[in-house]
Amino acid sequence: MNASNPSQAAKPTIAVIGYGSQGRAHALNLRDSGFDVVVGLRPGGPTEVKALTDGFTVKTPAEAAANADLVAVLTPDMVQKKLYNDVLAANMKQGACLMFAHGLNVHFGMISPRADLDVALVAPKGPGALVRREYEIGRGVPCIYAVHQDPSGRAEELAKLYAAGLGGARANLIKTTFKEETETDLFGEQAVLCGGASALVQAGFEVLVEAGYQPEIAYYEVLHELKLIVDLFYEGGITRMLEFVSETAQYGDFVSGPRVINADTKARMKDILSEIQDGTFIQHWVAEYDAGLPNYRKFQQADIDHPIEKVGKELRAKMQWLQQNAAQATATPDAAQAAKPSTHPIAETA
């Protein structure tokens, strides 16, 4: 294999296990990049028809793994341990490569791969629909990659080859470790992107409503307009956001932001990171999953029942552009696939 130019290396036969948002994008991009791709799914599953319609050969995960040089595990985190132990471990070829898009199961020891297997991860930094769309227009979504086991001496090159097949080499490839990818990903979700942002929005809504302001006005101010700010962050960081908001908003940012997110908040973020690093979070999450998700469902329902959701649903029904976007998503396979809820209780991110 040519280590200096992954595009010139021999292309492995790939089995993509799972066909959710990321699984579908990976399979399509890899096939279009010239790889021999088969999709591994349980017979009669909800995505089997979709994969067949897309023109893939669909086999059981065991059959797909048995004939592949590289097996990409693109299923929800909490089913991967059973998938590996019950299916992949006994059926993967000697010396094959086991590929992940998230390092959680390997990093926390829930999966202990066979010693003969190369083990790597490639994680595109974007949802499946974006990974596919950027590839189709000749660009790519940046990818991070890592190697956990390298008995062949080729694991890093295989990871780069896989990332190039996704289109990631057109954008940016960053080398990481399973530890770094897993722990930063969990922290980002919990402290900022999902947990932190949701709690901040809900608290802001509650403060305004409890002070006597109309719920509809509160919704617009603390949730609806957040997209405008996040889009500016996405395009050019905090610097771009400051360029596009008023001087009054900037001054409020400077003097009030540190009062909301202060040293105490940062200390609690450090506590969250420590619980991720020492395995406390994953121990609790595995126990919750094994118990049938009673607290998860309770927390989920509490968010759904929050007053901001009722107000938002009514207001969004009057936003015609949102209805048009929904209609377009239904008519566009990639967008529809990305928007489709997972049948698994945890949305499939891989």
What does this protein structure show overall?
This protein has 350 residues and is of the alpha/beta class. Helix content is 59%, strand content 10%. It has helices at residues 21-32, 48-53, 61-66, 77-91, 104-107, 128-136, 155-166, 178-193, 195-210, 215-224, 226-244, 247-260, 263-277, 280-290, 294-305, 307-316, 320-331, 333-339, and strands at 14-17, 37-40, 58-59, 70-73, 97-100, 118-124, 143-149, 173-175. The chain has an 8-stranded mixed beta sheet. Helix 4 (77-91) links the parallel strand 4 (70-73) and strand 5.
Compute the number of helices.
Answer: 18
Derived structural class? alpha/beta
Low-confidence stretches: 1-8, 332-350
Mean pLDDT: 92
Task: Write a concise keyword list for the protein shown above.
alpha/beta; disordered N terminus; 18 helices; 350 residues; eight-stranded mixed β-sheet
Describe the SSE topology:
Elements: E1 14-17, H1 21-32, E2 37-40, H2 48-53, E3 58-59, H3 61-66, E4 70-73, H4 77-91, E5 97-100, H5 104-107, E6 118-124, H6 128-136, E7 143-149, H7 155-166, E8 173-175, H8 178-193, H9 195-210, H10 215-224, H11 226-244, H12 247-260, H13 263-277, H14 280-290, H15 294-305, H16 307-316, H17 320-331, H18 333-339
Parallel strand pairs: 1-2, 1-4, 2-3, 4-5, 5-6, 7-8
Antiparallel strand pairs: 6-7
